[in-house]
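Appendix B. Extra example for self-study. Work through it before the problem class; the solution is given directly after the inputs so you can check yourself.
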Amino acid sequence: MLGEGILKGLGETAKNFVGSFVSKDRLTTVQYPEERIAPIENTRDFPFLVYDGPDDADGYDKLAGLRCVACQICEKECPPKCIYIVKSTDKKPDFVGKPQIYPARFDIDISVCMSCQICVEVCPFEAIKMDTEFELSTTDRFGGLLFDRDHLSRSNQHYHKIHPTEATEVDARLAEEKIKADAKAKAAAAAAAAKAASPVAAPPAVKPAPVKEPGA
Amino acid sequence: MKISSAFWTNLDQVFVLLQHWIEGFFPQWLQPAIGTVLAVVAIVAAFPGIFALTTVLERKGLGRIQNRLGPNRVGPLGILQPIADGIKSLTKEDIVPLTADAAVHFLAPVVLVIAVFLGFAVLPVGRNMVLVNLDAGLLFFFAIGASTELSIFMAGWSSRNKYSLLGAMRAVAQMISYEVPLLLSSVVAVMITGSLSTVKIVEAQSGFTGILPHWYVFTPWGFAGFVLFVIAALAETNRSPFDLPEGESELVAGYFTEYSGFKFALFFLGEYLAMFSIAGFAITLFLGGWGAPLSILGFIPSWAWFFAKLLAGILFFIWLRGTLPRLRQDQLMNFAWKFMLPMSLLNLLVAGAWRFLGDGWSRWVVCSAVLLVAYVLLGRVLMHHQHLGARSYRYAE
Amino acid sequence: MIFGLSIIFILTSILTVAGALAAALLKNLVHCALSLTVTFAGLALLYLQLDAQFAGFSQILVYIGAVAILVVFAILLTRGSGIPEYRNFSTSWFAGLAIAAGIFALLAWAVLKSLPTSVASAAPQVTVQQIGLALMSSYVLPLEIVAVLLTVALIGAVIVAMPESRDPKSNSTQGGAE
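Solution. Structure tokens for the complete assembly:
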């Protein structure tokens, strides 16, 4: 009958109106910035450099645990070329104890960065990951949006907090490699000790030391 | 402490007594003029105040209907939002296009607001509270309402903008089409009362049988007339679902397009005030004006009842706006000429039959039956003729 | 009272005549139509001053609400929103002036002839009810003729505006570009 649809519609909107006062799923507004919803795990905004160390780094030397070895793969792969790396001249030991170079400068211009995550995907050292912070507005248009190495370094605990499953996975992988590297070092030390202990053994009997693969 | 009936009577007439008291300060020959000026000041203060309240209610009400909050930052629960809107519209730059007709462009909102304020002059807000008790009051109101169409045309034409022109033509066509059912559906109330004066129409509805009032809406022809009047009123004031002329998604803003700042606010004000005055007339003609709905509630002041009914009407309009999609121009015109006009003519016949069938239950049955059957049949016939298929274009064949 | 006419009457008549003159002399066609509306409003005020409420309000409702809209619609539909044209200087202006003067003289003679010689008695109080009764009893024939005229106009408008029907057999289109 004519007019039936209108009455049904009026009933529906009345339900919406009354329901918006009583039930949460009839009124889904989140009043930012007083209320915030927690971001999901796959959130990504801008990159940060991971260092193995405590969270509160007031005095802690973030450089000591920094995983980045300045291989510059992320700089080359970045599509808008927002990463700028200058290698250091000296070396520092990495998490397995091997001396590695480190970045003397590591700048990311986040006004250029497009959050594509390619730098994270290509990094062989699990050194750069995506952060979830987005309230980065500043009045300084150029300098305020250029993050240096110190600003970008955040601890592994922070990484666990924002991406728990990923971080546990990365930690498991790095622990595995550490075990393998430790086993290799022990084998190499044992072989060297055996070589020193039996000098009369013929040289052809000594197997040459296994070639270490580059990287971890 | 028992409140005497004198107290309620005084409360009912409090504004009239206030007016007489202020008049007393002036010499005898000046008193009528002062009284009129006071009443005009009251109208100019009260109805824009209701307009401010309505903008907040509308935005919050629509928000809640649409699963969101309305504005809630300015003042507690967003009550002071109209002040912010007012300051914004006053401080915006007043842009007039270079090729626009400057005189007509300026006069259009002025004419609209004047015409709309004039319409409040014959609205009986309470017992003894009408600005002018004209003998042909209703005719005055409809005459003034017809002048608003002219201002919309002026607005659309003077902007020299094809969107404005198109919007103005659509708006004027819509308003003219719906004026006929508007007038015809209000004629039934005039017929039964026997007078065009709004005061007399309200007084004719102020009786009670037992506890129930004599409002015209409770009769078959009154109910049909009320529904038709409300639909035509929505179309007259370009209110959703008939707001195609100002449809933001179709015409930028229709005939408002080239208006900014305070002139836009004047158009907005004029449109809402027109809605209030036509809602006030619907209340006067069919809902008993300032009369109480039950005789035991008669002690509550008459102006309180009027404004309560007006508020209920406004809330209903807001509810309709949140519910219905916009009507297309041809659907709009079809509805006016093919449905509303025959129904309002039939309503006239039914009201005449009501009068001549005399008192008794037979007239209720006959009149209700005729109206219901006509409504159902007309609805069926019109829906049946809808050609819902591939569209055909007149000039592109 | 100036010249025996009240101030309000003088002001209203100035408004009416100014509107009429503007309607005849302005260059922009839409401005002319709007000045004509001012003239209609002035006429309505004159009716109201004579206490003819029904006539005054009907004047506003019909003339301003319908006739003026009709005039502007006609301008819109035939000229669109184009640049206002300027009047041509007419060569037969003397003949026009003579005819206008003649008509003015005729109307003035008719009005002056019908003025009451004695002081006017109280104006009759004509209520809407009396007008209605008169329409239904003594003037019912003109009412019906006007109704027929309106119906004819409505039907004619619908016929003129109806889309031309396509003949399904033949391929010819009427009015459309092929």
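Self-check: Residues 1-81 of chain C form a domain with the Four Helix Bundle (Hemerythrin (Met), subunit A) fold (CATH 1.20.120.1200). If your reasoning did not lead you there, revisit section 3.
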